[in-house]
Every structure is written in C-alpha cells, then in structure tokens.
Design brief:
four-stranded antiparallel β-sheet; Rossmann fold; single chain; alpha/beta
Amino acid sequence: MALRRNWPALAAFSVGLSLILGLALRLTAQEDKPLRLDVKLVSLFVNVTDQKGAIIGGLTKDDFKITEDGRPQTIQVFERQSEMPLNLTLAIDTSSSTYKDRYIEQQAAKKFVHAMMRSQDQMSVIEFNTYVYQLTDFTNKVALIDHGLDRMRGAGGTALYDAIYAGSQALGKKDGRKVLVLVTDGGDTVKGSTYNEALEQALRNEVMIYSIIDVPIEASAGRDLGGEHALITLSEQTGGKHFYVDAGGLDKAFAQVSDDLRTQYMIGYYPHNQEPGRQFHRIDVSIPRASTEAFNIRHKTGYYADPQKSHD
C-alpha cells in the first residue's frame, strides 16, 4: 500500500528546518567575529606648564592619569605636539569701543595667520559687534584670510556670546583640533545667547577658547570685570587660555596662543564603567609625580553625552 504524503506539512517542516539552520549558521559566524561596541573616543588636548608658566615637554603616556566622574580610565591614544589638523576661527570684536584699535588688530591678526597656518590647517574669520558676521569661510589660503581681515568694519554693541555660539557650531562640523580665538575688550552687551548657552556649545563641539583681552584701562574703574571673568572662565572650562594684552601688544598675545597650540599633548580614551544617567561627564587629568614638581595642567573639564537640544 502506497504511503500518502502530506505535502503541506512536509513543506512547512522544510521551511522551518531551513530557518533553524540559517539562524545557527549566522550565530556561528557572529561568534567568529569580535564583539564591537559603539563607544566614542574622548579626545583631550592637554597643556602642562610649571608654576612659572614654562612648558613641560617630554612627558609620556605613563606620566598621566585620567578619571571620568572619578572613575579611572585607560589611555588608548597619546601624542606629543599633535600634528592633527588645526581648525581655527578668529573672532574679532568690532564694536564701537574697539574702533581706535581696528588697524592694530588687523595687522597683528595677519602676522598671526602667516605664522600659524600649515598646509593641513584651516581658518575662518568672523567679526562681532551688535551682530555676528562671517568675513572668511574656512580656508588654508592666507591671501583669502588677509582679505577677510581687511573687510572688518562695525560699530554698536558686543554680541560676544552669539559669536561663541555660532563659531562653536561651525567648528563642530570639522575634524581635528578646534580652536576659537577671541579678541575683545570686554563682556557681552547684546541680548542674545547666554553665557551658559555659549559654554555648552563650545563643550559639545569640542572647541577650545583662547581669549585675548585688550583692556587699556589699568584701574578697575570703567572696566567690565564681570565680562573679563566670564572670558577667563570660558577659556578654563574648554581647555584654552586667556591672555591680557600688555606692553608687548597684540603681537605678543597672538605669539603666546601659537606657542600654546604647538605644545599640546593629545590624549584619548574609550569611556568604560560610566556612571549611568549623567548628561555631563566630568574629566580630570593628573600627573601623579606632580606632587613634588607642581605642574599646572589645562584641559577641557568634560563633555556632554546627551543629545543636542535645539536653540530657540
């Protein structure tokens, strides 16, 4: 007697067996591949000086210790005098109070550009007064940057925080080191972006702020001490530095910025053992043997891990 085949049942069994075998093969293939987690490298640009301000070179990876939210991290990337491309935005205050220094600013900025630029670097120029204007888009062509500096005009108020906000966002789209150099004589006088919003944008976009503070008045009377303090704090929080224009003028201040950028250590790590739920992760860099040598260490204070919020 011939057996009667149940074709629908056999077909279903065959399909099910194929699915099981396919899944087993995929799982076997996955086991052969290393498990990769999408963890972003945290990059720090660190400057080390002694108590007199002299640059400390020659340090190695083993000299540094990094913690994130108080938890030790392992250094994965280390470079001395990083050759990473430099993306720099030069933001110059052209409000009414700076008019008398306009020509001096232009000439000093040009010298800085000519001394600083390498083939792999790019620079943009913005001016800020009541509003923020872009004079030169990112380029490595010195002649275009010079032309942008020659176009500086302006009058009115000082939209300092708007300049930091806009400059940081533009720099955030670039790869490599990102630096915003501010040349100004005081604080923000325009109702726009706030100090906190400007600082957040700089940290989110990994921008180091260098403040060149041009204050011709030596005494406290008539000076915007609150504005100066804000500039100093912005620089400290982002791993940059502030400079007062002294007897050496803007030329000396620009030269100090250049020296600082050329003597940075680049340190990178992949965060592990993170404290859950934090929006902002605080970073500390130390040199354990510094207890006897008293080093000053500058770097950004941390980074945001939560998504970017829109700016109304």
